[in-house]
Amino acid sequence: GAVVSQHPSWVICKSGTSVKIECRSLDFQATTMFWYRQFPKQSLMLMATSNEGSKATYEQGVEKDKFLINHASLTLSTLTVTSAHPEDSSFYICSAVKGGPGTGELFFGEGSRLTVL
Amino acid sequence: AQKVTQAQTEISVVEKEDVTLDCVYETRDTTYYLFWYKQPPSGELVFLIRRNSFDEQNEISGRYSWNFQKSTSSFNFTITASQVVDSAVYFCALSERRTGGYNKLIFGAGTRLAVHP
């Protein structure tokens, strides 16, 4: 199967700093990637759809200035949590679509655990 | 609106017992996909199955089986002869063409399964 890798796997940062999380499709090109957020013992909530070469589409209630998404190439999407606060501590998971946007296969990264002190 | 309900928050069984995880979904689309994922304590999502709305055949894969019934909007998952390694959180998810393509998943709340020796 295809491989999607996230980096870093876990990160601890101080309140007020910005943190960048990378999502890479290692063996395929992905025009579309998705970013999810998961609080402890809760479900995955879709944050945004990342489209290569265009602006991300954010779900209702997600602050686009807080969570900056850049899909600069066909194999890389980045999520930057700006001015992080303790309430941003969460597990962030990306997924990438291999194939067409409608019926392509979906592959998830391993997740990135963010802890903001 | 699209919605996935997993009413069972936690299930605890003894090894070798059979266990069924329930999933009920809501959608206005006639074409959609349903998924099951396993999330072990390490956090990564493990894909188990994808089923499209036109295929109501039940599926069996080893100790796993799935019962898809459109009449009741349910897609239940059964583990036969459960093992300790089955302990994880299991998510049911839905994607529709209408709301962004088949790769934009809406997850249920998850069911935490604990299998005891």
Question: What's this model, at a glance?
Answer:
The complex is a heterodimer of chains A (117) and B (117). Chain A is mostly beta strands and 117 residues long. Chain A is built from no helices and eleven strands.
Write up what this structure looks like.
- The complex is a heterodimer of chains A (117) and B (117).
- Chain A has 117 residues and is mainly β.
- Chain A has no helices and eleven strands.
- In chain A, the strands form two sheets. In chain A, strands 2, 4, 5, 6, 9, 10 and 11 form a seven-stranded mixed sheet that branches. Chain A has a four-stranded antiparallel sheet with strand order 1-3-8-7, with no helix packed on it.
- In chain B, strand 7 and strand 8 form a beta hairpin.
- The model of chain B has no long low-confidence stretch (mean pLDDT 92).
- By secondary structure, chain B is mainly beta.
Q: Label the structural class of chain B.
A: mainly beta
- Major sheet description of chain A: 7 strands, mixed
Strand content of chain B: over 45%
Tell me roughly what share of residues is in helical segments of chain A.
Answer: under 10%
Characterize the overall form of chain A. Answer: globular
Strand content of chain A: over 45%
Biggest interface between protein chains, with counts per chain? A-B, 24 and 19 residues
**SS element count, helices of chain B:** 0
Low-confidence stretches of chain A: none
Secondary structure class of chain A reads: mainly beta
What can be said about the biggest beta sheet of chain B? 6 strands, mixed
Can you count the beta strands of chain B? 12
Rg from Cα of chain B? 14 Å
- Taken in chain order, the helices and strands of chain B follow as EEEEEEEEEEEE
What is the 3D form of chain B? globular
First-residue to last-residue Cα separation of chain A:
37 Å
Distinct helical segment count of chain A? 0
